[in-house]
């Protein structure tokens, strides 16, 4: 996952702090330490590690990759309390849930990655350009979370195999910001089926975690396909809703 921002702050002083790279900032440290609340009673005593890959350093929050927290109130920046990896540079910020994802983001930024050789990545890039993506996060494992029977029972059958790539985020639509979703499916038929299922869910279903009808939060602008790529845009007063849905592994992003 990645976003863009500018930052020029200094790190807060503490006794015996660990050595950090030049792209570390107080804002990044606060975010990373907040994320450790999921597994640490006193996150201020738990510093993220600094990891260097390809000459670039990033912060690695303590904890097992992708392991969720049982305490949602202490989840930090990730709604499920998963430890994150974060990199802050002068003109961009990368946030990822695994070291592999962070390394691929670094490779892509430096032009040395293999993403361009993946057909799904090329198709997704074209769709993101077409939709006018302003900010986005991505996943290659968008399946929903098992809430042990405590979440909403709203389900929509998935069309074919899970999406090879899924991007969600916001874009500018005139003076307003709205939300978008791009999913790369294995075939045109699967994409068409996924588009139908997504529209049904938004118009008639509810969120797994909040039980709130999706139609109260998202209004479809367009849900369509181009070959095996599904693109959906939604009007919403809170464009980040769709990003939160991905982080929470909601039914909305189970494509």
Number of helices: 5
Calculate the terminal CA-CA distance, rounded to whole Å: 18 Å
List the secondary-structure elements in sequence, H or E: EHEEEEHHEEEHEEH
Helix content: 10-25%
Ranges where pLDDT stays below 50 over 5 or more residues in a row are 1-45, 146-151
Strand proportion, as a percent range, falls in 15-25%
Tell me about the largest β-sheet: 5 strands, antiparallel
Coarse structural class: alpha+beta
Strand order of the largest sheet: 1-5-4-3-2
Round the mean pLDDT to the nearest integer and report it: 75
Tell me how many strands there are. 10
The coarse overall form would be: globular
How would you portray this structure in words?
This protein is 23% helix and 24% strand. A 5-stranded antiparallel sheet has the order 1-5-4-3-2, with helices on both faces. A 5-stranded antiparallel sheet has the order 6-7-8-10-9, sandwiched between helices. A hairpin with a 2-residue loop joins β4 and β5.
């Amino acid at each position: 996952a990645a976003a863009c921002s500018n930052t020029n702050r200094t790190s807060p002083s503490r006794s015996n702090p660990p050595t950090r790279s030049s792209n570390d900032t107080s804002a990044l440290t606060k975010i990373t330490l907040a994320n450790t609340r999921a597994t640490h009673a006193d996150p201020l005593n738990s510093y993220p590690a600094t990891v260097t890959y390809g000459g670039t350093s990033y912060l690695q929050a303590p904890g097992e990759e992708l392991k969720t927290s049982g305490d949602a109130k202490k989840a930090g920046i990730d709604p499920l309390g998963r430890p994150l990896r974060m990199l802050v540079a002068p003109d961009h910020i990368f946030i990822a849930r695994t070291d592999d994802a962070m390394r691929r983001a670094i490779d892509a930024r430096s032009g040395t990655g293999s993403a361009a050789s993946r057909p799904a990545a090329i198709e997704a890039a074209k769709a993101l350009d077409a939709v006018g993506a302003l900010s986005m996060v991505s996943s290659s494992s968008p399946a929903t979370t098992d809430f042990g029977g405590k979440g909403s029972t709203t389900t929509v059958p998935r069309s074919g195999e899970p999406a090879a790539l899924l991007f969600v985020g916001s874009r500018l639509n005139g003076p307003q910001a709205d939300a978008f979703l791009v999913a790369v499916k294995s075939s045109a038929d699967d994409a068409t089926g996924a588009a139908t299922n997504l529209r049904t869910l938004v118009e008639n279903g509810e969120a797994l975690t909040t039980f709130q009808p999706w139609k109260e939060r998202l209004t479809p602008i367009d849900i369509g396909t181009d070959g095996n790529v599904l693109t959906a845009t939604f009007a919403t007063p809170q464009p980040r809703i769709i990003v939160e849905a991905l982080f929470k592994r909601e039914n909305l992003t189970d494509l």
